[in-house]
Every structure is written in structure tokens, then in C-alpha cells.
Amino acid sequence: MDWYARAETAAEALADATGVAQHDVAVVLGSGWGAAADAFGEPVAELPVASLPYFLAPVAVGHAGLVRSYAVAGRRVLCFLGRTHLYEGHGPGPVAHPIRTAAAAGCRTAILTNANGSFRTDWAAGTPMLIGDHLNLAAATPLEGARFVDLTTAWSPRLRALARSLDDRFTEGVYVILPGPHYETRAEALMLRDLGADVVGMSTVLEAIAARERGIELLGISVVTALELADTPIDPDDVVAAAEASATTLGPTIARIIAALP
């Protein structure tokens, strides 16, 4: 069974478990972002993500491993609290499986969130950035065979404009994915900056590719949690803590974005 068929199977199990036949919007909450879901109200249903077919429980700190169904402003929202990362060693399939399942469940819009390390000296920790474009340096893709997907406007200009109209804290930049789990060296950070990246992380891009293949419109929100060119070491616990602080304030913004969708 390929990953597309697995997504269909998982979507059927999701509908049975939540009692919701179809969802409209998918939200993936990255490291430390769990508190953002509080702005969506009481969930209609909640279950461990690993209880669904072919899903893996996330292993990274700050990833709860839950999936919830919400009703937000008349829209059915499928919210994943945490994700599987490429560095866990299972390949691109499990990484893209949640967003493919969301597509099979009916979602046509997705909001992907993460924590990042910034190369920008003018962006302090806690700065929320809209992903305007990305660089895929993970040496991986969720696509196999002759599946050609245009990524020219992978990150929806329309949704970015909507987000900026609802929250003036947003800046915009280029996100680069590295496979991890180690952080990059200073020389690598300088190289990535020179390539055009504003921030770096270890997630989101493979999900975005899979989402665009299925016609999902994408918004990416990435919070600065570390300064890559600073002289201080990067502490993973500090990354999660910084994301948690920002997620609490950005949850209501995500809810307003969902409410304002056509």
C-alpha cells in the first residue's frame, strides 16, 4: 500500500474516531506550539495521533502527539499537536502522512507552524515570521516517480496578505530546512545566510511539498527561538520555551485567520 492509499485509510479512521466526516482546515503545531490550540475553544474530539493508521508518535520535546478536531467560525479544523521529523529515520513518508491524511479528510487549506533559528540580527527571539519561500536542503522529498509539482508560489501570497492584515507583528522571510538533528556550524550558518535564507529549521518543507501536490493552499508561521550567529550555544529546551511563549499570543491570530478564510 502506497502512502496515498494509507492516507485514505487514515482519513476514514479519523472520521470514525472524531465523528466528523470532513474537515476544512489543517493546522500543524510545531515545537512548543501546543498552547496555540487553546484559542480554538473546546475540541470536538481528541485522540493520540499514533492511534490512527500508519501514524507515528512524535519523539521531539514540545510535540504532544495528539490530533484534535475543532469547530472554528463554522469551519472544521483538524489540528495536529506535533509532527514526525525526517531525522527520526523513518523516511519522508511518515513525515508527509499527516498532511496527506488531512487532504484525504477534505482539507484545502493548511497552516504549518514551527520554531526556527534566525540568521537575522534585527529579529529578536519571539519574532513571528510568515514563510514567503523555502530552501530544501534536506536532500529528501515526499514525492516518488514522475510526480511534478510546481512550487513557484508554494506559500500562498493571498494567505500571507490576510495574516498581515490581522496581525501587524508578522515579518516575512525564507525558511531553509536541514535534516538535523544536530544544529549547524557557524560556517554553515554563514553559508545558508549567503544562499538567501533568513531562518533555519528541521521540518515543514516536506509537508509543504506534499500539501501542494494535493492542491492545499499553504500558510507558514515560524517563530524565532534562537539566534544562529550569536556566540551562545543553542539549548533545545530554550527553543521550546521561546516557542511556547509566542504560541500563546499567536493562537488567537490563527483563529482569526481561519475565521476570515473565504
- Helical amount among residues, as a percent range? 25-40%
List unreliable stretches of 5+ residues: none
- The value of Rg in angstroms is 17 Å
Written as H for each helix and E for each strand, in order along the chain, the element string is: HEEEEHEEHEHEHEH
Q: Quickly count the helices.
A: 6
User: Could you tell me the strand content as a percent range?
Assistant: 15-25%
Structure summary, number of beta strands: 9
Characterize the overall form.
globular
Structural class: alpha/beta
Distance between the termini: 35 Å
The pLDDT mean sits at: 95
Main sheet, how many strands, which sense, barrel?
5 strands, mixed, barrel
- The largest sheet has its strands arranged as 5-8-7-6-9
Helices, strands, pairings?
Blueprint (H helix, E strand, L loop, with lengths): L2 H16 L6 E5 L15 E4 L17 E7 L2 E7 L10 H13 L4 E10 L9 E9 L20 H10 L4 E7 L8 H10 L3 E3 L3 H9 L3 E11 L8 H25 L2
Parallel strand pairs: 1-4, 1-5, 5-9, 6-7, 7-8
Antiparallel strand pairs: 2-3, 3-4, 5-8, 6-9
Helix pairs in contact: 1-2, 2-5, 3-6
Q: Can you describe what's shown?
A:
With about 260 residues, the chain is of the alpha/beta class. The protein is built from 6 helices and 9 strands. The protein has helices at about 5-20, 90-105, 155-165, 185-195, 205-215, 235-260; strands spanning about 25-30, 45-50, 65-70, 75-80, 110-120, 130-135, 170-175, 200, 215-225. The protein has a 5-stranded mixed barrel with strand order 5-8-7-6-9. β6, α3 (about 155-165) and β7 (about 170-175) form a beta-alpha-beta unit. α1 crosses α2, α2 (about 90-105) packs across α5 (about 205-215) and α3 crosses α6 (about 235-260). It starts with a helix and ends with a helix.
